Amino acid sequence: MEMNFKTVIMNTRKFWILGVLVFSFWGLQAQSKKEAEKLLESVINKIASYDNFVADLSYTMVNQEMNIDEKKTGKIYVSGDKYRIEMQGQVIISDGKTLWTYLEDSQEVMISNMEDNDESISPTKILTSYNKDYDARFSRDATYKNSNLKLIELKPSEGKNFEKMSVLVNEKKLGLENFSLYDKAGNVFTYHIINMKPNTELPADTFTFDPKKYPDVEVVDMR
To answer: Rounded mean pLDDT of 95-120?
Structure first.
């Protein structure tokens, strides 16, 4: 009886210790989630405070199963919901309502409505939609020499074409370093934001595509 009683006591103690550890883990996870959301919100608010920004852009598209590793460089211009991305042989422009994709090699511009492109690369939309469409948490696997760099992983709600998204931010500067999109086909699209310059003077036609400037362009209107 004495041994059985001691066994019960020991098992009960183990149960309570395990319970404390589990609840502590859940508490840390909840705290981590709140801290990740707060940091991302601070970065978003800082970027949103700019009238606009211009930055160098480095783009990669990787699919390990298909042995694809595509890299491009260019420039990005952002003002609210408007953006312009210039990369090698390609220009993507949005005025917030209409999306133009110009392909230099084929001398073709495709026009579509932004509302028909739920997963289009709108930097503002990507950053500001997380709070209602994504569950944000710090990545426990990511380590960097610069301790100020924090990787935040975002899992989407149902109905999204992307499995997850990650955003690398500088906690001290509240700056955006890069963001990656992971789709269901195994593709990983990463955009590195370099040398961001806020509140610059931009030409009036930065966020529109004027076919008159491209007399030989073929217009494909998909609206």
So the answer is: 82
